[in-house]
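WARN no homologs supplied; continuing
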Amino acid sequence: MIRNLLLLTIASLAVTAASAQTKKVAHRSHSGAAAHFKPASAGSGFGLPDKETMKQWEEDRKRRQQADSLAAKKRADSLANQAPPRPKPKAKPARRSATAKVK
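OK structure emitted
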């Protein structure tokens, strides 16, 4: 029973790994020719994006950074323009009841 389960597990893992798509094939299928595929390192199946994609990512990063800095400036300005908080009124001393004994 355990042997059969072990063999079934090994077989299913082998089939899953065998059907995996390489990064180069995925690039050719979705992004263009295999000639434009640039591996990240020698012998690696992981590819680097093309120059246009890298340029777009950099522009998006700069746009987000600028939007974040403008939002931070707007918040700082709104906090600076707020009126200072009013001090809390002092608490009145408690009155002594007429029935309390004074020593």
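The first strand starts at residue 38 and ends at 39.
OK
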